[in-house]
């Protein structure tokens, strides 16, 4: 009798766990299709808090990818959004390339997602160089974009890119080092793309040029929507342009978790900035549209809950920031 009772309880528990595991999912897209990823969620974790009207499309930054085995660029974020009711699509473009090339690659996947879902619009969220990608798509396809949110986006350029560009111009050394460094970076991230199920041509030098101060300024001339006036980059930009709502948030932290191996390098890179920064992007440079907040105690990777959730215990969980943004979009009817 006891054995039957225990067996019954175990079976019931297995059914509950199975039902919970099927409660949510998100999609990982490549250039031709999107595959579903199941999300384990206990019944009490499932809600409609982040259930936006239109699908959410995530666009990664430089050196990014969608997912390689257990390593997710958006660590735990698609899962968190999905558990709270959002329809989430994770895209991938070239890890290194110009803003325009990456923007075209994202545009192609957005069109595919629109076709797959039948949705009239999507909400774009881009991290780092992904902010240029979403601005590109919103600029060329505004009637199909509900909102564009930049997370730690170098919208005004990055001094880090300026410094690296300057180093490759050093007489005698630069011309020799530049093609070698570019070749190594391009080769490595071609492998990263293949491992994540993609295959894009990499161009590290084009990517670097796009993120320089001058490169970003040129990009903004073509895609100015949501950007603050050049005379006051620390201000907010227009909240809505051509029917697209613009938002941004970023951090100014460096050493946020003693266990995170990238904190020290990001702290060192932050020294080249004349303003508060997250290690790769300056506070004012990150501004686009309505600024949710620009001083989270997060460094550049913390903003997407990397590395593997090693963020500050004294700051808001990055996943909560994304969840709240989805709720904000939901309340706006987006």
The CATH class name reads Alpha Beta
The CATH superfamily label reads Alpha/Beta hydrolase fold, catalytic domain
Order of helical and strand elements: HEEEEEHEHEHEHHHHEEHEH
Helix-and-strand structural type = alpha/beta
Which spans have pLDDT < 50 for at least 5 consecutive residues? 4-22, 170-192
Taking the sheet with the most strands, its summary is: 9 strands, mixed
Instruction: Say how many strands there are.
Output: 11
Give the count of helical stretches: 10
Assign an overall shape.
globular
- Portion in beta strands: 15-25%
Gyration radius, rounded: 21 Å
Give the % helix.
Answer: 25-40%
How confident overall, as mean pLDDT?
85
CATH topology: Rossmann fold
CATH architecture: 3-Layer(aba) Sandwich
State the end-to-end CA separation. Answer: 55 Å
Count of discrete domains? 1
Brief synopsis:
This protein is α/β, with parallel strands linked by helices.
Mind explaining what this structure looks like?
It is a single chain. 38% of the residues lie in helices and 16% in strands. By secondary structure, the protein is an alpha/beta fold. Helix 3 (99-117) crosses helix 4 (130-140). The longest helix is centred in the middle third of the chain and has 22 residues, at 174-195.
Chart the SSEs and their pairings.
Elements: H1 2-21, E1 24-29, E2 34-39, E3 56-59, E4 67-68, E5 71-72, H2 77-83, E6 88-90, H3 99-117, E7 122-127, H4 130-140, E8 145-151, H5 159-167, H6 174-195, H7 204-211, H8 213-222, E9 240-241, E10 244-251, H9 263-269, E11 290-296, H10 318-331
Parallel strand pairs: 1-6, 3-6, 3-7, 7-8, 8-10, 10-11
Antiparallel strand pairs: 1-2, 4-5, 9-10
